[in-house]
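Entry for coenzyme A complex. Fields follow.
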Amino acid sequence: MDYPGCSPSIMIEKDLDEVIKIENYVFKRPWTKNFFRLIISDMNNYVLSLKKGNILIGYGGYHSLNKDANFLFKKNEHTRIIHLINIAICPGFQHKGYGTFLMNRLLNSARAQKRDYCYLEARGSNSRALSFYKKFGFSIIGIIENYYPQEKENALVLGKNLLNIPSL
Ligand SMILES: CC(C)(COP(=O)(O)OP(=O)(O)OC[C@H]1O[C@@H](n2cnc3c(N)ncnc32)[C@H](O)[C@@H]1OP(=O)(O)O)[C@@H](O)C(=O)NCCC(=O)NCCS
């Protein structure tokens, strides 16, 4: 699905005030502006801001791992992996398809770079995000105990093959 008037663009410094507002609304442990600065300055990251007109309504991005960081898999089953580092849509715009639109852009970009696998971490309690990822065909590939120590909460690690699978 495409959205008229809705465009993803590479996240830049100018976006960060709006990004931080959304980040603070939607996450229990929001990232700081300085952390986002580091994220967008890393050449191995691909991070998009999603704007509707002039309003920033969401963002998301992934990190492209080096071949030698292939620690998740046996026998080099996947060699060109991405790590989805973040995705968020402003509360007033959620459940209207924008997250799906943005995720498709991210995954299609990774596919265009011949990336073959995507993984991410999500809180076990984040049922909305889990439902979102499930719709994209992600499945649980592991659990990291106490990944969110302040809440003593585990992370679910979800993964998905990127090649030969059409987008939603
Ligand atoms: C997860 C998130 C990015 C999804 O974006 P979105 O624009 O709301 O999602 P979409 O409208 O594209 O919905 C796609 C699917 O996500 C799930 N979903 C989205 N909103 C939901 C809600 N309020 N309740 C339950 N499921 C929901 C559903 O499976 C939905 O499919 P459906 O429309 O057939 O029900 C968004 O809800 C969000 O920003 N959440 C807070 C931040 C967050 O948790 N990010 C993930 C970190 S791991």
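NOTE: Helices lie at 16-26, 33-41, 98-112, 127-135.
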